[in-house]
Inverse folding.
């Protein structure tokens, strides 16, 4: 692999925990072991995109195309692996990055500000973005009222007008009508002429063949093939034809097997495998294992709490609980240190809020009256006797 790249992904994986309850989610955050099943959406994907290249991403539903696009765009983090993107990216997926409660115009401003444009620059671009999106009065309505085609139009228009170095288009053209599609294709062609880098995700092999210089075929979380467009699309078509000829039962069996492989994926085993392969290529390098480890974990931000933070959180929680108990018990700290059992034997009277105290007095008085009556009754009873 040459160093002359715009995007580089190396040994990228993405794991999802398939939580069933909120409690499982919380436990996992605190690194408490749960029996939640795991699913590896990506199982070690590596490729590079050269400057000015249009790379197509193809693969059947659920193969991991959007996952890798979102990782490259910085929308979601990878679980392991190295990702290097040289330049600003702008992703166009159906409704990606659009806030549904904001109007189209507000979304234009927000997304542009997030890309680093100033308010003056946005004002200058606003009319062009609105006119390209061509969604009429809806531009002043909240995005939640848009059809998927309208969201795609708005998203595409914003993305191409903010002039990113890298444009990632994820299935955005599949929902537009023919006129809009042609406008988008022309705009993408303009981008290519300007030497910009494009990642184009689509199920339409025709669109891919028309727009892309190279294609990566992602297959159930793995990179199955990358190369010249025609070569890869031909192999992919053969695969689709083979799959279509399977019986319904065999199709289901094949898909279940692939998903099972994604559930059973072992990240440590994969790391060992990569280390062994690289050690074989560089037998004299004593630092291969450390380099692979750094590549796997060096640039990732864990979605789970690191062990030290978990320990710290537990310590703070226990300390807080302890001091609360000391306070409630009413004993001085030194006394509790000498007699730990006294922490559960409070000395202080409970100080109740005013209203509660009054109510309590009334109840106690009533209680006393009752007791006096009882006393009188018993003395009368005694006199009669
Ligand atoms: N948040 C999530 N939690 C659990 N699994 C997820 C999550 N997001 C994606 N996945 C799973 O990861 C796999 C890859 O999904 P992804 O959306 O990347 O596929 P895709 O190739 O873009 O599919 P499509 O062509 O249908 O858009 C799928 O099996 C999907 O169910």
């Amino acid at each position: 692999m040459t160093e002359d790249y715009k995007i580089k992904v190396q040994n990228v994986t993405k794991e999802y925990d398939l939580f069933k309850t909120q409690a499982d989610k919380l436990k996992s955050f605190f690194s408490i072991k749960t029996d939640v099943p795991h699913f590896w959406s990506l199982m070690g994907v590596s490729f590079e995109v050269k400057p000015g290249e249009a790379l197509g991403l193809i693969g059947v539903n659920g193969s991991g195309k959007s996952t890798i696009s979102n990782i490259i765009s910085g929308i979601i983090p990878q679980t392991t692996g190295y990702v290097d993107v040289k330049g600003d990216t702008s992703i166009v997926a159906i409704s990606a990055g659009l806030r549904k409660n904001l109007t189209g115009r507000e979304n234009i401003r927000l997304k542009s500000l997030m890309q680093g444009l100033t308010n003056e620059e946005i004002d200058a671009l606003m009319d062009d973005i609105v006119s390209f999106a061509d969604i009429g009065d809806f531009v002043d309505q909240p995005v939640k009222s848009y059809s998927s085609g309208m969201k795609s139009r708005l998203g595409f228009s914003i993305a191409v007008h903010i002039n990113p170095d890298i444009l990632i288009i994820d299935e955005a053209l599949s929902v537009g009508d023919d006129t809009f599609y042609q406008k988008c294709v022309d705009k993408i062609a303009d981008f290519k002429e300007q030497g910009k880098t494009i990642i184009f995700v689509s199920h339409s092999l025709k669109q891919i063949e028309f727009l892309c210089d190279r294609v990566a075929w992602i297959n159930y979380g793995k990179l199955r093939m990358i190369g010249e467009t025609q070569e890869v699309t031909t192999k992919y078509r053969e695969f689709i034809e083979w799959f279509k000829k399977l019986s319904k039962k065999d199709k289901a069996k094949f898909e279940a097997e692939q998903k099972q492989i994604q559930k059973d994926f072992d990240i440590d085993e994969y790391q060992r495998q990569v280390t062994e392969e690289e050690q074989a290529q560089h037998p004299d390098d004593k630092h291969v294992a450390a380099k692979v480890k750094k590549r796997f974990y060096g640039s990732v931000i864990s979605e789970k709490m690191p062990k030290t933070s978990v320990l710290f959180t537990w310590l703070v929680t226990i300390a807080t609980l302890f001091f609360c108990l000391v306070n409630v018990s009413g004993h001085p700290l030194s006394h509790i240190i000498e007699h730990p059992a006294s922490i559960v034997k409070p000395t202080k009277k409970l100080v109740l809020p005013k209203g509660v105290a009054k109510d309590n007095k009334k109840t106690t008085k009533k209680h006393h009256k009752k007791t006096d009556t009882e006393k009188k009754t018993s003395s009368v009873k005694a006199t009669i006797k």
